[in-house]
Design goal:
By secondary structure, the protein is of the alpha/beta class. The protein is built from 14 helices and 16 strands. The structure holds zinc ion.
Length: 384
């Protein structure tokens, strides 16, 4: 075997062992050997290496039955940290997350609509540094950060190509944020980060094919196929907000006519509501729905029909095992779930409907920061 291949295999084995301890720990060396098919000698060597590097620790536990003490191995949750950040129109969320995916600290900061790119970045940098210091975390334990935001993102280069909601265009976000924080930065569309959190910690755990649909200020989806995020050619796979559902319909901010987003997004619903009544925010629309005002019932009936149609189309395209619904709409108006489930039955083709589970996000408002932190760990952690 070539030396290069040997090194690669060694690295893969080490990752395999660490993943096993992370997923099933506390676990004995014998169990690890049995589950990985590797020899007890190799397991001992790898576990020792991981111990020296600080990734695992030993715990002593009494095994049931025999009563003999067995030494088990578990991961060291504070060996490293990553930072997950979500930016939207009026809010910035920052979370420091440990190695096993627990949020150590989460902070929400108001973002003014008029705030420009530089102001948002320096606000993030200042708050990140404060959070690190206040929680006594060593800078060298932080291996990097991830930013999730709505829009068209060049994931490979960390560039925001276009975010309508933030009014950002061609922003070299990863590079700029690294310059002011010194940390390595990855950037992705928020829903792609959200589905990562569901895949590792939430509703899509142990699932190979899953789709997440987010409905709120906009509508979009993210897709996991065979355990991998499906990005398409320009990272825009899943952007269903710009599928045309009525070529004679409303004008979209993308310049086309009749995009799905123009019927489902909060802004669109509010704009249509204002033709009937003078309202302050989307919450007033939901309140009117609860008070059974007919115009609100009509409007949300159309919204739920379009959402259900979008879901049924996605199911025919990807045939996932799980479809996760998430976003403001379901959090602010939970009673809408029942309506959508009924329409889902009506509009979805039976062969794909029978095999899919329709569920709601478990991680909700923490999904993006958590998924980002996990993605940063998966991307930036390089085991020697
Ligand atoms: Zn559009």
């Amino acid at each position: 075997m070539e030396k290069q291949d040997q090194l690669l295999m060694k690295k893969q084995n080490k990752n395999l062992v660490l993943d096993m301890i992370k997923g099933r720990g506390p676990i004995s060396r014998t169990e690890i050997a049995k589950n990985t098919g590797m020899s007890p000698t190799s397991i001992s060597r790898i576990v020792n290496e991981l111990h020296v590097q600080g990734f695992v620790r030993e715990t002593e536990l009494v095994t049931s039955g025999v009563g003999r003490k067995a030494v088990l191995v578990d991961v060291e949750k504070d060996v490293l940290f990553t930072i997950g950040i979500e930016i939207d129109k009026s809010n910035i969320k920052i979370a420091i997350v440990n190695y096993i995916g627990d949020i150590v600290v989460l902070k929400e900061i108001h973002r003014d609509h008029s705030e420009n790119y530089e102001e948002t970045l320096s606000k993030i940098a200042v708050n990140v540094q404060n959070m690190i210091e206040q929680n006594g975390i060593l800078n060298e334990k932080i291996i990097g950060m991830a930013v999730g935001l709505p829009g068209y993102i060049d994931y490979k280069n960390g560039v925001v190509k276009l975010s309508d909601q933030l009014f950002w265009k061609e922003k070299t976000l990863a590079e700029d944020l690294k310059r002011i924080t010194t940390f390595d930065v990855i950037v992705d569309n928020e829903l792609k980060m959200k589905i990562i959190s569901e895949y590792f910690l939430g509703r899509a755990k142990d699932v190979k094919n899953a789709v997440l649909v987010g409905v709120g200020t906009g509508i979009g989806s993210a897709i996991i196929l065979n355990g991998e995020i499906y990005r398409g050619e320009s990272n825009n796979a899943g952007e269903i907000g710009h599928t045309v559902i009525d070529p004679t319909g409303n004008v979209c901010n993308c310049g086309k006519i009749g995009c799905l987003a123009t019927y489902i997004s909060e802004g669109a619903i509010l704009a249509d509501s204002r033709k009937v009544k003078d309202l302050d925010s989307i919450d007033d629309v939901y309140e009117a729905f609860r008070l059974k005002e007919q115009w609100a019932i009509n409007l949300l009936d159309r919204t739920t029909t379009y959402i259900s149609l979008a879901i049924s189309n996605i199911l025919c395209l990807y045939n996932p095992e799980v479809i996760i619904l998430s976003g403001n709409l379901f959090e602010k108006l939970p009673e809408i779930k029942e309506v959508i489930e009924k329409k889902f039955e009506i509009y979805t083709w039976e062969p794909v409907r029978e095999t899919v589970k329709l569920v709601y996000s478990q991680l909700n408002t923490q999904g993006v920061v958590l998924g980002g932190a996990i993605q940063a760990q998966n991307t930036l952690l390089d085991l020697d």
